Amino acid sequence: MRVYNCHFCSSPVYPGKGIMFVRNDSKEFRFCRSKCHKNFKMKRNPRKLRWTKAFRKAAGKEMVVDSTLAFSARRDVPVRYNRDLVEKTLEAMEKVEEIRLKRERAFYKNRMRGNKAAQLEEDRKLVEAHPELLREREVELRRMQEAGEDDDDEDMSEMEVSEEEESEEEREKVEIALKSKSKRKMRA
Q: Where is the composition biased (Acidic residues)?
């Protein structure tokens, strides 16, 4: 029993799951779900459907050329069982997986590097097109500050009375609460 890859979307097909289609020339096609099978029967190109791995690779969203990807290739050569070999293989598999994940993260960061500048540019255009949005936000912030100052004055007077009766541990809790309130005000 082995885990196959879907012929259409390249996701894993576990034993007992999915659909297997055998063509007249005895070529096997395995599909993870009926969605992939139906798209295959409709002769759709997986590279044009955004949800497939083929699209992601063709569009440059996933790594295509990397030495770690070669380790997942199928090998049909039978090897005599050797405990040491199995142990080393399992260790190597873990290391290869770690390396692959690091490289994928680096690839993703590299791909997303220019997005922040593009997003800022979009935001600038939005503000230029609709300056009234900023004015509305300023009014909301002023209202929140005014409402927040009134509530804080009442809270402070209540806390001063209760602090005289509390022990040192409870005083620390109150101070932490006050700090968090002031941080919230600063954020708003």
A: 147-169
| φ/ψ of residue 143, rounded to 5 | -60, -40
Q: Has domain 1-62 been given CATH number 2.30.170.20?
A: yes
For the chain, domain boundaries: 1-62, 63-113, 123-187
Please say whether the beta carbons of 64 and 57 come within 8 A.
Answer: yes
Two tokens, residue 14: 């576990």
Contact 9, 32 (CB under 8 A): yes
Residue 60: CB atoms within 10 Å = 10
pLDDT tens per residue across span 157-169: 444 444 444 455 5
Residue 103 neighbours by CB distance under 10 Å = 15
Backbone φ and ψ of 22, nearest 5° = -110, 120
Whether the full predicted model's pTM is greater than 0.85, yes or no, is no
For the chain, report the end-to-end CA distance as a whole number of angstroms.
Answer: 58
CB 7 within 8 A of CB 40: yes
